[in-house]
Amino acid sequence: MQSVVLSGREIRVKRGEGNVPVCEVCEVRTMPQTRTKLFAGPRLRQLRQRETLTQANLADMLDISPSYLNQLERNHRPVPHPLLQKLCERFDLTPAWFSNTKEAHTVQAMRETMADPVFKNASLPLAKMADAVHANPDLCAAFLTLYRAYKFEQERESDTLSPSPPLEPYETVGDWVQQHRNYFHELDCAAEKFYENLDLKNGLAEALKTYLLNQHGLHTQQDPALEEGGLVWRIDRNRRTILLPPDQPPESTLFYLAQIIGQRDHTRLISSILRREGPKEKNALELGRVYLGNYFAGALLLPYTRFLHAAQTMRYDIERLRRHFGTSFEQISHRLSTLQRPGMEGIPFYFLKLDIAGNILKSFSANRFSQARFGGPCPLWNIFRAFATPGQVQVQLSQTTDDSIYLNVARTVGHEGVTYIDRPRQIAIVLGCTISDAAKTVYADGLNLNDHRLVVPIGPGCRACVRDNCSHRSLPVSGRMLDTGSDARGVVPYRALPEKP
């Protein structure tokens, strides 16, 4: 039995069947001090379905009536704190598992959508949007789906060459991953189990190659022709060989080998997850399969218990973690955004990856942070400054329009071109946590977290941002009446009239 300390709790790691590490969380649960009402219907329903329980079964466990549980799941009633305590103890969860993170993202999406000029006569204050999401999240989700369909039809009418919405499957998968807080328990545990059974005496790369050779009869070989074809790996079934491009970073080779193992050994598990709860549309389903394959690879290279312990010991220093595990800055950052195992949570980070043109390539959030779905990101965000200082970490304290303050860590990632004619894609990522968690990271050192004068105000993109005094605004906020004034002129030549109460 080995013990490590995670988040002030003792985690006992013992060896179970098959020499697999089993984590026991030993803690005294403390409930939040705030007494705000907690509407957690979707999370309660997700928990019940995960445990394959009927409403009657769960109601009996909690010593409440099925009708009361039904009201809780439909968000008609808040979850009282004694019942929250009972749920956490019964299912080994922390109160944070039931937080309203998804609700905050839905409110932000509603806010952006209602900013469209098509709703110019529908004055709906933010408070009323929040009430609507509280009362009927499913109806609000249907409304957002309908709006996306409307936007697509508009775009198709203006561009007859686009027969189908190219980003819709990607958005569907993004929403699905977001609903799970970028954490998939079965797949994560399977990857951790696989790692613990490897013979690592010659390093992880050799262990993965040996496994593929012994279990699947696959050799590895370099093939320069892959780069010309735009491939990162290919399996030659006739020669029983995995072909890899030469001169690629070692961490990329590790990830690709882990991808192949996930594809070969865990297709049935991935298919089961997708069949049970994945996207239904075919293209979205296939993108979901790719995402889960990548998730398994990341979880194999950075096994949960070991990685969480190292992250907390090193105070989430990405560079130290990258060297310790022999992986890339991006791989470490993405893995940090997945540390949401019930009872063993890390800091809830948001993770975002975009290119130099501002196109969002990946976006996941385990906290309340929500990025704009329409229009470009805020130019005051430090992720754009990262492109001016390639390879250097940029740290920023920012405040969103809901007054939440985040610590943001941004840096460019990717590799340089191999030849002069190469055009490597310029990519940057940003990892962010709330200011309440900032002191747990090395990036807060030297910052005065109590002095908010230097906090940078960022918004969800100009179209939905309500700040009138921003000199970086590129266009007016949508859906609000404008006052251009005649006796005074501000930093922008228009101001949005206040929302009606």
From TrEMBL:
PROSITE patterns from the entry?
A: HTH_CROC1
Q: Which GO terms label this protein's molecular function in UniProt?
A: DNA binding; DNA-binding transcription factor activity
Q: Which CDD domains match?
A: HTH_XRE (cd00093)
Record key words, sorted: DNA-binding, Transcription, Transcription regulation
Pfam families, alphabetically? Answer: HTH_3, Peptidase_M78, ScfRs
Q: Which residues form the HTH cro/C1-type domain?
A: 44-98
Q: Name one GO cellular component term.
A: cytosol
Superkingdom assignment: Bacteria
Q: Which family does it belong to?
A: Belongs to the short-chain fatty acyl-CoA assimilation regulator (ScfR) family.
Name of the protein in its database record: XRE family transcriptional regulator
Q: Which organism is it from?
A: Acetobacter pasteurianus NBRC 3278
